[in-house]
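Key idea: predict the complex, not the pieces.
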Amino acid sequence: MRSKREAGFQDRILDLFTSSDALVSVVVVLLGFAVGTVLLIMVGRNPGDMYSAITQVLSGYDLRSGVWNARYIGEWLVMSTPLILCGLSMAFAARTGLFNIGAEGQYIVGLTVAQFVALYGPQVAGLHWMLAVVLGMMAGAFWGGIVGALKAKYSVSEVVATIMLNYVAYFASRFLTQLIPGANTYRTPSFSQTARLESPFLMALTNGSRVNYGFYLAIVSVIVFWVIIEKTRLGFSLRATGLNKDAARFSGINVTGSIGGAMAISGAFAGLAGAIVALGSFSYGRVLGGYDNYGFNGIAVALVGNSTAGGTGIAGLLFGMLNSAQPLMQSRQIPKEITAIISGLVVVFISLRGGVRMLLEWRMKELARKGRVTE
Amino acid sequence: MKANAIEMIGITKIFPGVVANDKVDFSVAEGEIHALLGENGAGKSTLMSVLFGLYDPDAGSIQVRGVPVRIKSPNDATALGIGMVHQHFKLVRNFTVAENIILGMEPRTAWGDVDLAGAEKRVAELSTRYGLSVDPHAKIENITVGMQQRVEILKILYRDAEILIFDEPTAVLTPQEIDELMEILERLRDEGKTIVLITHKLKEIKQVASRCTVLRRGKLVGVVDVASASEAEMAEMMVGRSVVFRIEKAPHTAGGVVLRVENLTVLGPKGVPAVRDLSLEVRAGEVVGVAGVDGNGQSELVGALAGLLPVKSGRILLKGRDIASLSIRERIKAGMGLVPEDRHIHGLVLDFDLDENLVLKSFRDAPYSGLGGFLDFRAISKHAADLIGQFDIRAGAGPSTPAKSMSGGNQQKAVIARELDLSPDLLVVSQPTRGLDVGAIEYIHRRIIEERDKGRAVLLVSFELDEILNLCDRIAAISKGTIVGVLDAKDADERRIGAMMAGMRMDQTQSGTAADTKGGVHAL
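Result:
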């Protein structure tokens, strides 16, 4: 097409915008920070303080005092782990054409089951935490699988079913955890040490942060996600179902099975997140006083990560960074709300991709009006 | 020559990514039947939608009866005496003819209520004057498609239209109804109306039009006097090169029965049988065509064969084995290939690349799928490269071309390549050339005949009678969900098939086509 060759710099940028989703995400994140910076200047704060807080989270290096403490890096990774996993949960469902708004519920179920196993499971080193993690994951898979089965068998909307099951999971978890002998309104007795995900090596490396085996599991999950979706028959069926259910069915793919399976796998990621938070960040079982919101934030993570394995991993690290930079910002007189504003803006800008496309089309029309498009 | 009723100058209309009309000039003289000819996507409907106020042109001007006008909405068009008969009728099914016609401009009596009696009288007058023989009291759901179209015509006549636009009016009609429509068009012209006929059917143009404007890819190719141009010349203008109308084919030698459908009943979307007690046979080495007007159970028949719709009763025997209760995948394995009616819905995953689409049915099998359920993308890509060569699929980026970026013709070639690559014993082909340009149609027709010559059984379902007559060895006419008659191609002509499509049973016209008493069951 002639117009493409003649198109100016501006048009080439627009072209890029519509062709590369990853680039859009990067630009959108930068844009979010830019707006955040402007806002800080407007309220009379020094945006440099925000960036120094971020630097401290990413590198452990405090620019003001010149002190290096790797603990900040560790805490960042701890914060990112459940976000990455819940992002993968959302992304996996999205790749199959489902909207799993129930990662929160699946997370709670995984967390609760892991807590029970931590308290009542066999106190054998190695085995104990593994069992708790696996059963937590399976509980999440079951919770997601219910939704998948309802959708596949009775065409129940997964959006409604997952929202409802979030409440069921939350109140069931509170009720059951409070039944544990010795539990009060907010906690149970402490776990045995064998149930903890503590990694002495990682702790030593990060100056005693809470970073644990869970981070390894998150990395493995990103790889597993990528392999399943991109490299296997199962992933092919799921992607085909997600992109065009009718064509998938016509080609002999078991669409109802795909939906059930995808929701179960999606739930497994969220359940794993729950288990990791329960066993990695706490030494006792919690009676939840509200949603931890990792499941909901996972939606934003998957959105920014374009529902790809690597993208979701990086987006999880980004959101984790914003979350763990909050207290540092506050100590530097930066209102902590700025992080919520930035992550909100990022999501809004991402959603504006459609708008960018419209802008491109408008540009093409303008070109054509000037007679530059011929055929 | 009389004054021009319509004069469109330099009309340009751009849609995202495509210039639908590129500086098109179009003029229609008062009182003529003017054909607007072009392939699918040539910009005919866009141009007429601009005239009817549905689209705002990006450039160009319009004059009606010599007066420059801006038509911003269909209401403006109606006020200027321009009416349009759309391809898909816009009628309320449980209203009467008269009620439909007055809808939106109901006449009132002195008491303020709707003057239905007066309206019915006027509708009856109009109907007689233009020879439409429409009963104003009949309900829409009880009259034929041909009649419904006349109601649409009456609707615009009632609004005092002087310029009538017909958008592909014959697509939904049987050959007999087409003839009647042609007479109506002539009658309208004799009564002083100006008519624009949008079509891609040359025969109709030859029959009624005096002049013909040809569009190709959004541009004006030329205006011809129909009387002095041959069909071949007009086709060449439309396509941009000379066209083969008939496919050469060797006489067929039918082998054993591959597909036998016995007393098949399939429910349609409303829970009423769309296919009723249908029986049909296809043998190896022959093409059997199912001819019929849209909406007579063809989609449901194909859906039931594919396994997309449940079979209410009856049997589907593929090489003697009843596949009616098998899953879609088992049917594919049993040797059924199917080119679906809509390549965008069932045929392709548009967001997949070409190579992925080409293994959509076979990705589980070697060599595409290896140990542990891992896919071998090198094999998948090589497979695509092979098929691209074999089937002449034009794909910009080779195997990794996104399916959605390919042209309709090449998408269809991809679907056909995938199906033929599995070497099915039975190939069911539904509307294989809908929306394609002539070049792609020729290619696909040739491929279908090749499959027949290889000894495959082919079942072709099409609304295009020419396509059926061109390709088939035997032709089964379908009406209201049953096969009303089967003809050998050599005995078939448009007239005869048209009569059957309209639901007239062939009694003892031809040997071997006698209608069974069990409601359209045929000894084949």
